[in-house]
Specification:
heterodimer; A: alpha/beta; five-stranded mixed beta barrel; 6 helices; globular; B: four-stranded mixed β-sheet; 38% helix
Amino acid sequence: MIYKFKIPDDLDKIENLKMGDVLFITGKVFTARDEAHQLMLELYEKNEKLPFDPSKMVMYHCGPVVKREGNEWKVLAAGPTTSSRMDLFEKDVINAYGIRIIVGKGGMGDNTAEGLKKVKGIYATYTGGAGALAAKSFHKVENVYFLEELGSPEAIWIFDAIDFGPLIVSIDPQGNNWNKISRDEMEKRKKEIFKIIDQS
Amino acid sequence: MNIEETILEAIRTAETAIPFDVFEHIKIAYENETNPVSKSQLNSILDNVKYAKDKKLPICQDTGTQTFFLDIGFDFPYKKEIVNAITMSVAKATNLYYIRPNAVDPFSGKNPGNNVGRFIPYINWFLRDGNDAIIYVLPKGGGSENASALGMLKPGEGIKGIKKFVVEQVIKAGANPCPPTIIGLGIGGGSDLSMILAKRALLRPLGQRHEEKRVADLELELLDLLNKTEVGTMGWGGKTSVLDVHIEYAYRHPASLPVGLVVQCWADRRAIIKIDSNGNVEVKQ
């Protein structure tokens, strides 16, 4: 199924999504890579507030190429980064901030799937490497946080997105995880391929 | 000759337009794909490539680690100028937003913001006869680089062992290196030489086979085996997981069978600069 959601208005509809569904998102997106994840957890432990509300936005594993033009920032390229690196922190970040939509690439592990199940959230993927195309849907940079401390790829950028997608649901709110399913299938195929190699 | 401007132009070309051979291979993968999700991903990839070229935007926001392979004639007169120009042009390219600041101090985590730091940009030298130079520009993304592997196999495992190692690694990498990928292999030498040969193998255009038939045959056999994994585009399954396999080799120690494996994402960005002894330059892909 193909869905077009406005975030945060349509957050309630997230729980009905199924693995393999296609999604286009209009609304606020914030970027977070390894360093931002660590920082968010540190702030949470210290009981300090973030300058924005992550539960009302899409969290995007992305380190964009951004250009300063006068007083504004322009997004030049903003495809996803490899999400599995964030498996280290993701369950805790979801618990701490109630994040319900995560976008990245490459798939995520069972720990993240567990975290998402609790908040009835999803993890969806955007085409890896399609940075220029993704940037097209981020028509405005709303804000940037921790730019000085983290540098531009690791900073938290807040984008205003129009029809960001197609995003494909990889982990659904029931905990179905394409990454796990496909990896199990590939392990089976590996045995078949090894047989071919042994017979060659 | 303004070598700095030339390198800057080559970086921009590499980052905004993929070589024709790569585009053609992705197009064929798209035409052959029957898995609907993977086909949609390949469609996005092709749209992205056309859009980036048209608008002169980076194809991917991960503009990579700036990596330069220099094939230099012993009598080429501008060695020092080239090294200086590479560093200058990389800093300038960052400043002009052609590339993202991607060089980070591994201890402090600090990003100097200009892609210049200890040993970075990376320059790999290969000296040979002649008075000209060829510079290969290879911006190498982090997601695919993280799927690199070194196998120190037992010589008794032989070529079959190499095949199993490569299949194992491609499955382990799964969707992470942005498949369909290109696999560079370095067989033999030692640990360091096998890895550098694997990365150098990526410089060869897709579809071009190794000059020795026995190596070329192994490239094609591995390509076929790897596409049986059905990793597919971005891990969504389907016919094409790998666009090509390139192998380079060196003689090995009797006790060792090193296999270096380097993975390149579908956004196989390259440019080539040719400089003759009079300083005439040419940039191509």
